[in-house]
Amino acid sequence: MSVHDPRYDVDAVVLDIEGTTSATGFVVDVLYPYSRARFAELLTERAGEPEVARAIAQVRELTDEPDADATAIEKTLNAWLDEDRKATPLKTLQGIVWSEGFARGDLVSHFYDDVVPALRAWHSAGLTLYVYSSGSVSAQRAWFTNSPEGDLTSLVSGLYDTENAGPKQEPESYRRIAAATGVEASRLLFLSDRPGELDAARAAGWHAVGIRRPGEPYYEQGVGDHAQAGTFDEISITTSRSTA
Questions:
Q1: Helix, coil or strand: residue 17
Q2: Predicted TM-score (pTM) of this structure
Q3: Residue 80 maps to which CATH number?
Q4: Is the model's pLDDT at 194 over the cut of 50?
Q5: DSSP states of 19-54 as a string?
Q6: Rounded mean pLDDT of the chain?
Q7: CA-CA distance, 94 to 54, in Å (whole number)?
Q8: Residue 209: helix, strand or coil by DSSP?
Q9: Among candidates 77, 96, 97, which has minimal Cα distance to 87?
Q10: Which range marks the domain in which residue 91 is found?
Q11: Do residue 136 and residue 229 come from a single domain?
Q12: Which one of 13, 23, 124, 164 is at 20 to 30 Å from 117 when CA atoms are compared?
């Protein structure tokens, strides 16, 4: 399949994380086991914290088990992990655990080599950068704060997840992000490795480019009829927005 040479005049770029800026394998092999080992303590010792309590209530609602105890909820979370299910309460609880792991120095995030230079160049050129990931906002913030190249949060103007924006394969979620950012849909570019997400962004009037990296889960499947790139530096982006 030939690689297009995507060129875009937009005002903002919205980034997926897994498979796009960062290796899915790192998330699955490093972060998932880290959270799995800490769910029990979180559910038993911190169930009274508002964010934890809300996630517990959401698990009970999703499983239709209003009386599920910590053991049952942990079992559900681990089953969802095995399925790689993008359930909001799972992502919330993972985000809490990961944020603390990053803060302690147990964890350092992963970015593909082409990503950070491209983000810095786009930011310097006047583009506004946002993140839209199935991982929770707190996990995203920890991810960008604790990169191998230091704190990258100054490059990013907003973080969106399945709780504040909605499911990633529904066009309405992308309309919600456009409204929240104040950027016209036609001036937004979404980068992701998942064709369903690219379809949803395009249906909302956005531009979309599929990122195809060897070894990633969606590499063989491809990105449908979307423009595609193997690295961020294959994408040419300009903006008419003034940098003054």
A1: coil
A2: 0.88
A3: 1.10.720
A4: yes
A5: TTTB-HHHIIIIIHHHHHTTHHHHHHHSTTSHHHHH
A6: 94
A7: 14
A8: strand
A9: 77
A10: 28-104
A11: yes
A12: 164
DSSP type of residue 181: H
Q: SS3 for 143?
A: helix
Domain stop point among 76, 104, 132 = 104
pLDDT tens-digit series, residues 117-173? 999 999 999 999 999 999 899 999 999 999 999 999 999 999 999 999 999 999 999
Mind listing the pLDDT tens digit for each residue in 88-100? 999 999 999 999 9
Q: Is there a single domain that holds both residue 159 and residue 89?
A: no
Q: Which residue has the tokens 């704060």?
A: 145
What torsion, rounded to 10 degrees, do the Cα atoms 200, 203, 205, 210 define?
A: 50
Alpha-carbon separation of residue 223 from 153, 211, 229 (angstroms): 28, 8, 10
Do 32 and 13 fall into the same domain?
no
Residues of the chain with pLDDT > 70, as a percent, come to 96
The sign of the dihedral angle between the CA atoms of 172, 13, 225, 113 is: negative
What torsion do the CA atoms of 140, 142, 148, 154 make, to the nearest 10 degrees?
80
What pLDDT score does 243 carry? 45
Residue 1 placed within a domain: no
Number of domains composing the chain: 2
Residue 70 lies in a domain: yes
Instruction: Tell me the C-alpha distance between 27 and 34, whole Å.
Output: 10
What does the pLDDT read at residue 241?
64
